[in-house]
Amino acid sequence: MSYSYNVIVRTHRIYCKSVSENNSVFKIDQTQSMHLIKVLRLKEKDQVEVFDGYGSSAICEIVELDRTSVSLARVSDLKVSQQSTKKIVFMVPFIKKDNFHFMVQKLCEIGLSEFIFYKPDLIDQSIAKKDISKIYSKLEDVIISACKQCGSNFLPITRIVASLKDGIALVNNMDVCVFDVNAKSSFDMTNLNSSSICMITGPESGFSESEINLLNLNKFEFKLVSKNILRAETAPIVIASLIQNHFDKI
User: Fold this and answer.
1) Maximum distance among all Cα pairs of the chain, rounded to whole angstroms
2) Which of 151, 170, 204, 209 is at 20 to 30 A from 67, Cα to Cα?
3) Against a cut of 0.70, is the pTM above it?
4) Backbone angles phi, psi at 52, to 5 degrees
């Protein structure tokens, strides 16, 4: 007896803003080029899906490549995705580098609209004296990689602020919820009625007393996300999953 199998080959995805511009032939940056050449080992006339980070994507064909660069030609019409009408913002602290990158990667895959990254008062000593901008600069690769993998054509907006106070100044006219292990009531997703919501989480050591006072001054609600104490990188992922499931996005 013989068997036949249908093998579905997934088209590789890469990021390049030029795909939605007027030029039908364009070059991609060196990082994306090296990935196609060295990792995927693609050749001329192979096709890839290219997205621009703003919702558009198209099938493109490799027309020229050398050791470090690749030129593509758009061979399909642009496909434009519709962005969700629900804006979900997460205000999260800088934490240990590997945990930080893992958290951001998973939140991108779940599908957030925007990140606000702040430097907490009780920042971990392993990064307290480091240049935060260097940690932040590597995030673009993490975010692009996550969007490539999960199929999203939108790169989330990212903002970096010096403190929680500066971050709060950016969330006017939003429903805001703060998550803290000392909160008295549990998170209730049925109260998420606004089109724009912001979730705030703290670092490994929790919010400082001055940060708690600041959050109380703004009359934000404090909520528990779990009976268990979740890690600083785990809590935002759990919260985002619950929210997206509530809105039928998972």
Assistant:
1) 74
2) 151
3) yes
4) -100, 0
156: left (phi over 0), alpha (psi -120 to 50) or beta: beta
How many residues in the chain?
250
Domain ends where: 58, 80, 102?
80
Q: What integer pLDDT is reported at residue 247 of this predicted model?
A: 77
Distance CA 245, CA 196 (A): 16
| Closest residue by Cα to residue 178 from 91, 71, 59 | 91
Model pLDDT, residue 87: 87
CB 11 within 8 A of CB 151: no
Range of the structural domain that residue 153 is part of:
87-246
The amino acid sitting at 156 is P
State mean pLDDT over 184-189: 86
Do 69 and 98 have their domain in common? no
Q: What is the pLDDT of residues 87-141, one digit of tens each?
A: 899 999 999 889 999 999 999 999 999 999 999 999 988 787 777 777 777 888 9
How far, in Å, CA of 131 to CA of 127, rounded? Answer: 8
- Number of structural domains, the chain? 2
Decide if 43 is inside a domain: yes
**pLDDT confidence of residue 3:** 58
